[in-house]
Amino acid sequence: MPTNKTVRDYIRTIVDFPHEGIMFRHVTTLFADPRGFRMAIDQMLHPYAGMQIDKVVGLEARGFILGGAIAHQLSVGFVPIRKKGKLPGATISQAYTLEYGEAIVELHDDAIQAGEKILLVDDLLATGGTAEAGIKLIERLGGEIISCAFVIDLPDIGGRARLEAMGMDVHALCEFEGD
Asked: Which residues are catalytic?
């Protein structure tokens, strides 16, 4: 039976989470549906057809799910960027500002070789703080970020503009205004 659903149709909105007034856009319903999940992965891959990509880097945690599937489809390696203290061995770290404080993300210091072409992946682009921290880590190791790919962009929050001001190419499958 044909469906006219878009990726956006599979995304759940949770009102007042994690704080009152927030419309939380959550992708678990997208991931749980085989058609929706395949659609998202296929659409995330589409802009990069024929491009050289050496590794996919996913931001914790939903970026791991998307990034692993994309890396599999591309037959390339996957690299996680994790919250501080989650990776064993030697790491590099980057602090960044959250809406209500600060956080630190880490990357293994040998995960990316200089000159490797990197696709950065996550589920949602809001302020761009986590993605910016990930970009800085990748660039410190000499990786060349070819693009940043997201399922959802919240353009009114400014993350896309922030990443584009850094010279990043940004793709998102759908937008939710005013969030």
From this structure: 62, 99
Q: What is the band of 84 on the pLDDT scale with cuts at 50, 70, 90?
A: very high
Token reading at 91? 């790491």
Element (H, E) at 117: strand 117-125
Residue 118's Cβ-count burial label (10 Å; 0-12, 13-18, 19+) is buried
Report d(CA 52, CA 77) in Å as an integer. Answer: 13
- One-letter amino acid for residue 160 of the chain: R
Are 53 and 76 in contact, with CB atoms under 8 Å apart?
Answer: yes
Name residue 35's amino acid.
R
Count of H-run helices and E-run strands, the chain? 5, 9
Report the chain's mean pLDDT, rounded to a whole number.
Answer: 95
Q: What is the pTM of this model?
A: 0.95
**Is residue 2 predicted with pLDDT exceeding 80?**
no
Q: Determine contact, residues 18/24, Cβ cutoff 8 Å.
A: yes
